Amino acid sequence: MAEAERQVAHERAIVRWLAANPPPVADPNTCAHCRQPETRDAALLPFLAGDDTHRWVHGRCWSDWHRTRRLAAERALAAARDDTGPRSAA
Ligand SMILES: [Zn+2]
Known about the structure:
mainly alpha, two-stranded antiparallel sheet, 3 helices, 11% strand, binds zinc ion
């Protein structure tokens, strides 16, 4: 498989994992990342959770929230790869 195709397959796997593993539904009055309420300086914004639902996250928290979600997906996919790798099949 070409590197570009591998990259696309990896991205698809991440998107599928994010859709299959939406974050727990949090209190809509607090940020899904830092659990703090909305303030005058930090508005809560709706961000798609990957499964057509959304979570309320501070605009400034979004990149950390998204990175945390992606990291969880990367870890889960790596663990799944290890489980079905050639070593465990032997
Ligand atoms: Zn926040």
